[in-house]
Design brief:
- The protein is an alpha+beta fold.
- Helices cover 35% and strands 21% of the residues.
- It contains 20 helices and 25 strands.
- The strands form six sheets. Strands 1, 2, 3, 4, 5, 6, 7, 8 and 9 form a nine-stranded mixed sheet that branches. A five-stranded mixed sheet has the order 10-11-16-13-14, sandwiched between helices.
- Strand 10 (239-246) and strand 11 form a beta hairpin.
- The longest helix has 18 residues, at 176-193.
- Residues 43, 46-47, 106, 111 line the site of magnesium ion (MG).
């Protein structure tokens, strides 16, 4: 019914096919290319970058509605080029009309025409080496004559009353603040990819963003410097260098330590051949790489740059050019995952520098910073040399990790035995990266003295991590060792959790826990993972039962190993609230030093905090 009435209402002319006017074509195209002020800013700044500019200044009044102006010191345009520039499908960038090997940011030749179709544009430009500047005006697609203008080398484009010619689009713009913010984010992305270019953004009254050129630095430093100036100094201090190559694809950039993470994935940036792109590929790959180190709701901060031969990627997917298609998606994803994992493993148990400053902040009465915020706190600390020392130690210990452990058989922590060195005979020394244990507080925290400070270890978090890493390692090699209980334990549960446990009995056995059904609502436990040490079997099985209830049925325990090991570790020998002997504490510290990723627990929280003497002196006003 409705449809019929609707059709009746169509104008009679609907049946006649007509060619659209150039103006309408441009307005339709503009709808795709310039969605909002931020997209106009992106196109104009990309043009400036393509023109080889070293300084780019952007001003946006009223969130870009009233005015967007972009000034650059690039190659500029002659009077005849100015006329062509604002024509649709006119570009200087597609050599031989080759859509396969695209090396510039622009290539479609439609941005200026689109913007000029829906606003009032003034372009003033002076070409390199030219004596005079020229200007051209376009008003909603109506082009005025080229006239002499005033401008030093480069180009200035002023866009006024954006979308005034397309009121429908104008209506959809958000608040000044939102539009401005979006453009600022866009500009920051462009700035991350182009560290050699200096940028400013202002709202007409003040400069809200600026990034100085890093021209004098080497490529890697220059990039880190730029990323630091945008993502914060903390990022710079907590970033790992990423550099990998596979089959002609190069991946570089910086990724933050897991302890420097954020509550959403908005701080993850991907650039493909210098172009900022949004790609779900990145989110998935990053999640995969960090899954061992971060809780599900925490997201690492990172900026990755993929460089591929131009013919390996199609950038011509969408008019806004913010999506790309790789010839081999899997190859890129695999490269990202393995490079990140590699960097994280090499970082060993280095925890974020912000952890210590958050701790110091928390100790200072005026300034109470909760740990959950540690990623966001400004830090004045330089990265410590601790990570290097750790890396070295890890190298020399890797071959013995199997022997050094919380030895399950004895139900006690045994001292690590290094090849050629009998560690039992060596007195604990402050020279160890994590120092020597001096005491335990609240049956939960180990305090140890290092050569130049002190370390506080959360014994439970640390142990949980160690169990997890050992479990993972064991599963990869000879399998998890089990310890037979002298007296099998019967654990009474409710029916459903008991049934769930039994259903997963095979998987649990692979993790070292052997259970069998024991009537309705009960299981009998015969063997437990040896590496847990003395185990509170009842508590462990009950918690696992609960955990399985919450766990997605489709996930294997191996996929949720972090959670399962966490639960197991809770009932092992080093849980919070258990008193440890000095030997046990030192064994734990030594194992942490030798275990990759022990700087954070399975949920991305730090397992230890290090305070340098200098920091402590500051606390007491000695510095
Ligand atoms: P595209 O960037 O895809 O080529 P545009 O419509 O954005 O298309 O620009 C058209 C042409 O105008 C460009 O190819 C370039 O030659 C010229 N141009 C645009 N902006 C600038 C600028 N800031 N400096 C120098 N030339 C420019
Ligand atoms: Mg362009």
């Amino acid at each position: 019914m409705n449809e019929i009435t609707h059709r009746k209402n169509l104008p009679q002319s609907a049946g006649i096919i007509r060619r659209l006017s150039e103006r309408t074509i441009n307005q339709i195209a503009a709808g795709e290319v310039v969605e909002r002020p931020a997209s106009a800013v992106k196109e104009l700044v990309e043009n400036a970058i393509d023109a080889g500019a070293k300084h780019i200044d952007v001003v946006m009044r009223d969130g870009g509605r009233e005015l967007i102006s972009v000034t650059d010191d690039g190659c500029g345009m002659s009077d005849s080029e100015l006329v062509l520039a604002i024509e649709r499908h006119a570009t200087s960038k597609l050599r031989d009309e080759d859509l396969v090997n695209i090396e510039s940011l622009g290539f479609r030749g439609e941005a200026l025409a689109s913007i000029a179709a829906v606003s009032k544009v003034t372009l003033v430009s002076r070409a390199k080496g030219a004596d005079e500047a020229w200007s051209i005006k376009v008003d909603a697609g109506t082009v005025h004559k080229v006239a002499p203008g005033a401008q030093r080398q480069g180009t200035r484009i002023e866009v006024r009353d954006l979308f005034y010619a397309t009121p429908a689009r104008l209506k959809f713009l958000k608040t000044t603040r939102t539009e401005y913010g979006q453009a600022q984010d866009m500009l920051k992305r462009l700035a991350m990819a182009n560290p050699e270019v200096a940028f400013t953004l202002g709202d007409g009254n003040r400069t809200t963003f600026q990034a100085a050129s890093t021209l004098q630095l080497g490529q890697e430093e220059s990039r880190l410097e730029r990323l630091g100036s945008i993502l914060g100094k903390d990022f710079r201090d907590n970033a790992l260098v990423i550099d990998a190559e596979r089959e002609g694809i190069r991946l570089s950039g910086f990724a933050a330590l897991p302890t420097y993470s954020r509550g959403n994935a908005q701080h993850q940036f991907l650039f493909v051949n210098g172009r900022a792109v949004r790609d779900r590929l990145l989110v998935g790959a990053v999640r995969g790489a960090y899954q061992d180190y971060l809780a599900r709701d925490r997201h690492p901060v990172l900026a990755l740059f993929v460089d591929v031969p131009p013919d390996f990627v199609d950038v011509n997917v969408h008019p806004a050019k913010s999506e790309v298609r790789f010839q081999d998606q899997g190859l890129v994803r695999g490269l990202i995952v393995s490079a990140l994992r590699h960097a994280l493993a090499a970082a060993g148990h280095r925890a974020s520098t912000t952890v210590a400053s958050a701790a110091l902040g928390a100790m200072q009465p005026q300034n109470n910073l909760p740990y959950s915020n540690f990623g966001a706190q400004p830090s004045a600390r330089a990265p410590s040399g601790l990570s290097d020392a750790m890396a070295e130690l890890q190298q020399s210990y890797t071959s013995q990790t199997d022997q050094m452990t919380l030895d399950g058989g004895a139900g006690q922590i045994s001292q690590p035995t290094a090849r050629g060195v009998d560690i039992d005979a060596v007195q604990p020394s402050d020279d160890f990266p994590l120092g020597s244990a001096r005491g335990q507080l609240h049956a939960t925290y180990i305090i140890s003295q290092t050569s130049d400070g002190l370390v506080i270890v959360d014994q439970h978090a640390a142990h949980e991590r160690l169990v997890y890493e050992r479990m993972k390692k064991a599963m990869e090699s000879e399998g998890v060792k089990r310890q037979t209980l002298l007296l099998p334990e019967v654990v009474e549960l409710e029916e459903r959790p008991a049934a769930r446990l039994i259903k997963r009995a095979d998987e649990l056995e692979a993790l070292g826990l052997v259970i069998e059904p024991f009537g309705e609502g009960a299981v009998v436990v015969r063997e437990v993972p040896a590496l847990l040490g003395t185990t509170d079997v009842k508590g462990l099985v009950r918690d696992l039962g609960d955990e399985l209830t919450e766990l997605d049925e489709t996930l294997s325990l191996k996929e949720r190993l972090g959670d399962v090991c966490g639960t197991m570790a809770c009932h092992g020998s080093v849980r919070a609230g258990r008193r440890l002997t000095v030997e046990e504490m030192n064994a734990l510290l030594r194992e942490m030093e030798a275990t990759p990723h022990s700087g954070q627990c399975n949920h991305g929280r730090p397992t230890y905090v290090e305070l340098k003497l200098a920091d402590i002196e500051k606390l007491f006003g000695r510095r």
